[in-house]
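S1.2 Input.
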Amino acid sequence: MGSVHLELLGEAHLGALGAMLSDPDVMRFTRVPEPTPADFPQQWLATYEAGRRDGTREAFAALDGDGRLVGLALAFGIDLKEGEAELGYIVAPEARGRGVGTAILRALTDWAFAATPVDRIRLVVDVENPASLRVAAGAGYAREGVMRSVHFKNGRRIDAVLLSRLRSDPAPP
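S1.3 Output.
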């Protein structure tokens, strides 16, 4: 499995983030708007920095051993009152197929359980994204079911798999 370390997303990562946003799979399987505004990376960073201050969001750059950005690790919708959060991850095209996604999600999950009081983490994954479903399984997430017609993007509604990890679940092997 690829090894990664997470560091807070910042200005230094915006160039690589912008490059990832040109990838068709990133655009297809994320909630990034299409067309993507030219200043979207800066807007996204500002949104996550505001969430960092109020405890509702966090974003990390995922870096390999050589310090290259290989993906993003995102915690959004952190609901401290309900004790749950939704996580997301993006793997750079050149890093796919090497276990990097699973490493990112494991590190992000570990962070969420250590740094926040959440007891339940959820993932929402497009049913047509088998690679992301493999990442979730490798990070110990349990499939709960399919949410039909849950998101609207580019003129179509998608079905998505709902997955979760509980603080009380055993860590994946």
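S1.4 Remarks. The beta strands are 5-8, 58-63, 69-79, 84-91, 120-126, 142-153, 156-166.
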